[in-house]
Write a structure and sequence with these properties.
This protein is mostly helical. It has helices at 2-26, 36-61, 66-89, 98-103. The model has no long low-confidence stretch (mean pLDDT 82).
């Protein structure tokens, strides 16, 4: 349990110190000139899904079932855990529109 805590702590530090500043620099006026909303919706999603993509590639070329498990596990995690934690940690009632539910 302590190892899991340290793993999440290290991941948070790496994201805060390297991942987010790199995305901010890529979306700045000097490079892609994207708004923070667009950058968050595209670059953050791509960066967050990159490990799954590479795991799926390895599973595909090794002819393993790990690619399917990665995709299904990621989808279940995103739908159940991420949305659940957002609703639990929200300080006010969240109003959802039909579009995010239809899109996902």
């Amino acid at each position: 349990a302590l190892g899991t805590f340290y793993m999440f702590l290290a991941l948070a530090i790496v994201c805060d110190e390297f991942f987010v500043p790199a995305l901010e620099e890529m979306s700045s006026e000097r490079h892609l000139n994207l708004s923070m909303d667009v950058a968050g919706a595209t670059l953050m999603a791509a960066g967050g899904s990159a490990p799954e993509l590479f795991t799926s590639f390895v599973g595909t070329f090794k002819q393993s079932d790990i690619g399917i498990g990665t995709i299904v596990g990621s989808a279940v995690f995103n739908v159940l855990f991420v949305i659940g934690m957002c609703s639990i940690l929200s300080k006010e009632v969240l109003t959802l529109t039909w579009w995010p539910l239809f899109r996902d």
